[in-house]
Amino acid sequence: MEILVCIKRVPDTSENEIEINGSGNDIEREDLVYSVNEWDNYAVEEAIQIRDKVGGSVTVVTVGDEEAEEVLRREMAMGADNGLLLTDDAFENSDGRGVAAILKAAVAKGSYDLILCGAQADGAAAQIGGMLAAMLDYPYASLVNEIEVLGDKALKVGREIEGGNQEVNEIQLPCVLSIQTGINEPRYVGIRGIRKVASVDIPELGASDLGLSPDSVGEAGARVKRVDYFVPETGEGAEMLEGDSEEVAEKLIEMLKARGGIK
User: Fold this and answer.
1) How far apart are CA 208 and CA 167, in angstroms?
2) What gap in Å lies between CA 136 and CA 248, rounded to an integer?
3) For residues 98 and 134, what is the distance between their CA atoms, to the nearest angstrom?
4) Tens of pLDDT along 54-99?
5) CA pair distance 228, 31, nearest whole angstrom
6) What pLDDT score was predicted for residue 15?
7) What's the pLDDT tens digit per position in 98-131?
8) Residue 36 to residues 54, 78, 126, 131, 185: CA-CA distances in angstroms?
9) Considering the entire predicted model, what is its pTM?
10) Number of domains into which the chain is organized
11) How many alpha carbons fall within 13 Å on the CB side of residue 163?
12) Which of 31, 136, 146, 192 is 20 to 30 A from 166 in CA distance terms?
């Protein structure tokens, strides 16, 4: 099975103090530590496990500048077979639709049975997987937390839905799936693995290679543009109730009555 996994280089929130830039339209990105998006990492692990069971190969792809190559190599050290970097000045400031269009053009360059995305990989908008599937006219499932291969034509996928319930569907290949965290346990990437792929060639494709007009992607083609970016003001702190369990319960009941929560 030929699997393509869409990944993204993002600031590592565990390693950074995130601040808004002076223009108020983005975060301050200078000196940030970056890593692969968490959801995408689970998607790559799932792709590797599927390949190990049924054969084939795993290709990881990202849209970004030359620095984005580091996350491709990290996932190749994890076990992906190939990397593909989609990079062009024309791609800068693409909205979700633009990124999906770039990825669609890359899919057309290959022959993939399964395309995986992280459930949240694009500023938590959770839109790339669905947009990509629509552009390709492929079946799509989101929040996938279980995959079973049914021969070479279909998959059985479990997905997390409202109320903590689980939904199971059969989906035909080729298809696009957005992967939820917790579907597996991503493997550790060691120094030896990173060194092994350090010199592996990673192809780069730009707008002309993909047959894309520069006006259709990037800032020029964006239909959604960010106009503000801010940290919400901190509200009042929580009121702490002191005393033993009975005293706390009585105080809580009185508060709820006073505020109309109960009668």
Assistant:
1) 41
2) 57
3) 13
4) 999 999 999 999 999 999 999 999 999 999 999 999 999 999 999 9
5) 22
6) 76
7) 999 999 999 999 999 999 999 987 777 889 999 9
8) 26, 12, 16, 21, 15
9) 0.85
10) 1
11) 3
12) 136
Hey, what are 219's tokens?
Answer: 């800032």
Q: Which helix (H) or strand (E) holds 135?
A: helix 128-136
What the block records as the tokens of 182 is 């917790």
Residue 259 is assigned to a structural domain of this protein: no
Euclidean distance between CA atoms 121 and 39, whole angstroms: 7
Length of the chain, please? 263
Distance CA 112, CA 91 (A): 23
Is residue 169 one of the residues assigned to a domain? Answer: yes
Closest CA to 75 of 33, 36, 38: 36
Give the angle 194-197-201 at the CA atoms, nearest 5°: 145
Say what the pLDDT of residue 88 is: 97
The one-letter code for the residue type at 181 is: T
Integer Cα distance of 124 and 178 in angstroms: 13
Q: What's 211's domain CATH number?
A: 3.40.50.620
Domain with 149, as residue range(s), is: 2-221
Residue 182 in any domain: the answer is yes
228 located within any domain = no
Question: For residues 196 and 41, what is the distance between their CA atoms, to the nearest angstrom?
Answer: 19
Q: Reduced to 3 states, what is the DSSP secondary structure of residue 142? A: strand
